[in-house]
Amino acid sequence: MNKFIAIIILSIFLLPSCFNQHKKTYQSNLTGDLLKELTLKAMTGDKNANSTLKGLFDLSLPLNNGFNSFLIDSIFSMNRHKYYYLLISFPNPIYNRFAVYDSTFNLYLIDKSLNGYLNSDLINEQNQTFLSVKENFRSKEDFKLDRINYFMFTDSSVSLAFSTFIKAITPKNIYTQSINKFSNDRIITTISSNKYSSINGNSDVFLFNYKNNKFISINNVFTNFIENQIRAFNQDPLTTEITDYNSALKSVGIDPGFDTVKSTSNLTNMEGYSITLPDKWKTLKNIEITDFLKHDLKGSRYISEYLGTTISIAKIPNSDSAEMYISYNLNNETSGKYRVRYSDKIELKKDFVQFFEYSYGQKKYILILQASKYTYLQYKNIYQSIINSITID
Questions:
Q1: Could you give the domains of the chain?
Q2: Per-residue confidence (pLDDT) for residue 8, from 0 to 100
Q3: What's residue 248's pLDDT?
Q4: Mean of the pLDDT values across residues 277-291?
Q5: Please, are residues 117 and 3 in contact by the beta-carbon 8 Å criterion?
Q6: How many CB atoms lie within 10 A of CB 33?
Q7: Which helix (H) or strand (E) holds 381?
Q8: pTM for the whole structure
């Protein structure tokens, strides 16, 4: 198995269960066998299958069907709402996937952040259903790491409720974090090591935050300790590490340079528009855009991992309207140098989605904004300035 870095940027995409209903091409209900068939097709580049699975794989990356493990199973919430899930691990973790659907093809979660070799276990705890997903991977060659993730299944949602390292084998010691108590309102752990260490004998408490639906520790003792150990270790790795999205793209042969991926503040697109973004946004150019669309379009996607936001922009024929591509009406309009039509803000589970159509002369573009509700409300001025920054050449 290739070696992986411990800290890889999380990108859990909680997607609405109601969008893209028109893109279904299978009339029967979803089954485990059908999910397997669609997943294998999507993995090999079948756009129709990938669209049916709501963009399970990024088809702008090189195709890869050489997985290490592939699991499809079903799970019930405590009130017997049935879900189907898939868990796939690859030698390169950029392809790893955990996704959850219901029997009518509604998507509840796609997690693209899981690292290394993956396995799962069902947990029923005090009238609540969890799926435990364990990651086993390496960092800097010399650190063998295990991380545990608890995904909570209710009758209407699936979300990551808990994540922490539980074991680390380092060049000098073996550290373990054991879960001693798990209830609806808290998780209590104890920490040990094979040899003497400052962390040996410590404990930690993760309290359930009902606002975020997560178990959270104020100190996060074990994870912080292990991450500090990794950062302090200076030996050069023998293999290429994946530390962020750019290095992940490099690992599959994509140059994260000007034409592919870019951290930038102002971007001029070859399609004839410009957009101004804060620092640390990433750009994917000339990719297939499928989310929320009746027909796939080629365009660019701008990603903020910090804000949990994507902005997709695609050019359409001047004679077309945005409503030919989306299932929402653009009932609002502003006029000035550019004509801008836009939809109301649409609430979809934990996200806001909004659609825009920009026109100037013979050029016309669709913009799709998908943002975390929390960051949208906290940083509304940032989103407004980005939307207002669009210029057409």
A1: 12-232 (no CATH), 257-392 (3.40.1000.10)
A2: 37
A3: 55
A4: 81
A5: no
A6: 9
A7: helix 380-388
A8: 0.60
